Amino acid sequence: MSDEFDKKIEAKADTIVDAGSVPSGSVPGIDYVPAHERPDQELYHSHSWWTTYVFSQDAKYIGIQYAITAIGTGLIGLVLSWMMRLQLAFPGLGILEPSAYYQFITMHGMIMVIYLLTALFLGGFGNLLIPLMCGARDMAFPYLNMVSYWEFLLAVLILLSSFFVPGGPTGAGWTLYPPQAITSGTPGSSAGIVLMLISLCVFVAGFTMGGLNYIITMLQSRARGMTLMRLPLTCWGIFTATVLALLAFPALLVGCIMMTLDSLLGTSFFMPAMISMGEKLSYDGGSPLLFQHLFWFFGHPEVYIIALPAFGIISDLISVHARKNIFGYRMMVWAIVGIGALSFFVWAHHMYVSGMTPWFGYFFATTTLIIAVPTAIKVYNWVLTLWRGNIQLTLPMLFALAFIVTFVNGGLTGIFLGNVTVDVPLSDTYFVVAHFHMVMGIAPILVVFGAIYHWFPLITGRMLHEGIGRIHFWVTFLGSYAIYFPMHYQGFVGVPRRYFEIYDSPYITTSTLHLNVFITIAALIVGAAQLLFLFNLIYSARAGKKAEKNPWKANSLEWLTPEMPPGHGNFGKELPVVYRWAYDFNVPGADKDYIPQTVPPSEVRSAKVEKT
Amino acid sequence: MDQAALKKLPRGWKSIPSDLNSDQTAFKGVNWGKAMMWIFLLSDTFIFSCFLLSYMTGRGSTVLPWPNPSKVFALDFMGVPVPLLLIAIMTFVLITSSGTMAMAVKYGYEKNRKLCGTFLLLTAIGGLTFVGMQAFEWSKLIFHEGVRPWSNPYGAPQFGSFFFMITGFHGTHVSIGVIFLFIFSRKVFKGDFDSGRKGYFTSMKSDYVAIEILGLYWHFVDLVWVFIFAFFYLW
């Protein structure tokens, strides 16, 4: 029976093989590569400026569109955080009204998590890198991919339009908890919240279109010889994050639809009977806890939707810039997949103080701590990759190292917060703020910077300015520690989060007030360094040093295109043929310190490569 | 995984490592669009699961009595209220349309244009009938029995909320399917799938596999209805 089944699988493969074209220059017997399984992808060829640069169906352009939109939105989030910091440091100046403070906190959180990081990692880097790294001509469904970007832009515009409606944007906090989110007294409880919910629904719809593309491209459209276990870890990170997104966003969508109905139609999904301003509201019998479950069933995987692409990208940066193969590649892949799977079983650790049954808390504390295992494996493997590597302290490497430090830091405080008994006194203090900014704010954004410094030559053909980059790195890295380290202390002494003004009180030591001034100054400096980075991007794109081909001497396919930046269809006339994984650095017996994925074994006979 | 260990695996599991270890494509010979539809449906399953789980929690946690479905949804037939009558007809029509859809897929692969187009048209009409009966049921509940999304004369206000939201979301799925069924049957009759004419928006070649992909969606919508039927009308 089993042989029969094997034959069936083989027969299936045979039916679609076009009679094997042997790649040029390969030596029969040594250089084995399976034949083509499918005909070359048909592409849409643009004819005008509009279809080339604006309504582009080329994944590379869509990726850049995604990235620019996300970064532009992120800048708004940055300015919002400046305003909040100024208010916290100098409450006497009356910079913000209390309602504005809540609105800014909400918009800052939502913009940074969804519209900057999710969109940048998956929409930006995903679109740019997946087809190139897999050796595909483009995404599987270019038209759908284009629609995905325009829906994302629409979602951003709807979100930003809430600044201009009566009542302003919602001030419910990024978690949007009902009943307060849609009850009068919360800023933006009528128009603002509805626009936020609609924007999220549009984002989910747009993301689904993009996400299906990433998955199908990676599963079904790889180059000859490119097995899944030869893919760079960047691809694995983005792939798993996309799967998480496709399974987690439904909960957000459902929660958003239900709250929109509560707000507009007066249904009572999440709204209990309550008295507001001395009057009994028409709501009756809903469950606020239900929203929290739906939100965090999305919200916790969302953390890993951001973190997993960061894990993948960082693995590649470390390997390339330490000139050493990634330690434990398979372990890294399974750790990514394992973290992704576990992330669906931990959501209620965000709800220890929400009033759910305490027994639940112990279950979720256990699953939360189990996630530390694959995560620790990844950290050890990064460190072991560095061990005895030929470490090049290039800009991407600096950011990669900073990521490891920051991530470990934020991860350790996560172990504190994952335990119910430790979490209860710490919840809703600045300790939580410090934890999640370290682990899913600063750490991923450092990866974003590292990745931009690394792949900028691929996009523009020029290098980013080294000197400006180093100033940017040190200010950002040390500055973000100056911002978030004191917050841990503030949390321990009990400063509550989401208060727009910390005034003299017998319960709060005056040192925390001085710390607030210090943090704000650090935040302003770090923010200014980002403007320097933007200047570097614009300046270097126009007048930067011309990059040679494959400037970092990397192995993966995105650097091996005939032209750089890659043209329409990515790989010229013939698609690349892959003989190895992307991590053959400093192989004993090889002439050079790297062997690109397309080099056949016959050319490096003396090299003792790992079998992949 | 080495070959010996692979051979020991039970039959269904064997394909998993072989798919994942394989070169170029994970699912051999599977059309991209078809694979995409399966993964989309997985995501959509999560949407409907979230809806239905919310419904169960909402129904479980409300303090007011839940309306009796066999009374609320009964249809007067010759003066006698018959429970589940309309729903039985709706379900029958929708599941029959799944059958005609399967026929359309079969005739599509046989390149039998006339029968393929006819069965697609029949499926579309089935779907349209379903949506029409649903509209009738909604209007009966709203105008005759005074059920609103925010309140109803029987008890817990969440009854109307969940009912209109979930059946409405499902009805939207059916309506989208019906629109595509009409478009596809027109394309079949015109011969677009034989000539491989390029799509107006996507500029990709038309292929009969598109009918199977639409079929996957259609069967999924039917399957979801079975769950909605069970949870709203039988519980």
Describe the structure.
The complex is a heterodimer of chains A (612) and B (235). Chain A has 612 residues and is mostly helical. In chain A, strands 1-2 form a two-stranded antiparallel ribbon. Helix content of chain A is 60%, strand content 1%. In chain B, 73% of the residues lie in helices and 3% in strands. Chain B has a two-stranded antiparallel ribbon with strand order 1-2. Chain B is an all-alpha fold and 235 residues long. Chain B has a single domain (29-234), classed as Up-down Bundle (Four Helix Bundle (Hemerythrin (Met), subunit A)), CATH 1.20.120.80. In chain B, 33% of the residues are buried.
How many whole angstroms does the radius of gyration of chain B measure? 22 Å
| Class based on secondary structure composition and strand pairing of chain A | mainly alpha
Proportion of residues in helical segments of chain A: 55-70%
What number of domains of chain B?
1
CATH architecture assignment name of chain B: Up-down Bundle
Number of helices of chain B: 9
Could you spell the SSE succession of chain A in H and E letters? HHHHHHHEEHHHHHHHH
Please write out the topology:
The complex is a heterodimer of chains A (612) and B (235).
Chain A: H1 2-15, H2 49-54, H3 59-89, H4 98-134, H5 142-161, H6 191-220, H7 233-264, E1 275-276, E2 279-280, H8 288-321, H9 329-342, H10 358-386, H11 395-418, H12 420-426, H13 430-460, H14 466-492, H15 510-543
Antiparallel strand pairs in A: 1-2
Helix pairs in contact in A: 3-4, 3-5, 3-15, 4-6, 4-7, 4-8, 4-13, 5-6, 6-7, 7-8, 7-9, 8-10, 8-11, 8-13, 9-10, 10-11, 11-13, 11-14, 13-14, 14-15
Chain B: H1 3-8, H2 11-21, H3 32-61, H4 69-72, E1 75-77, E2 80-82, H5 85-109, H6 113-144, H7 158-190, H8 192-195, H9 209-234
Antiparallel strand pairs in B: 1-2
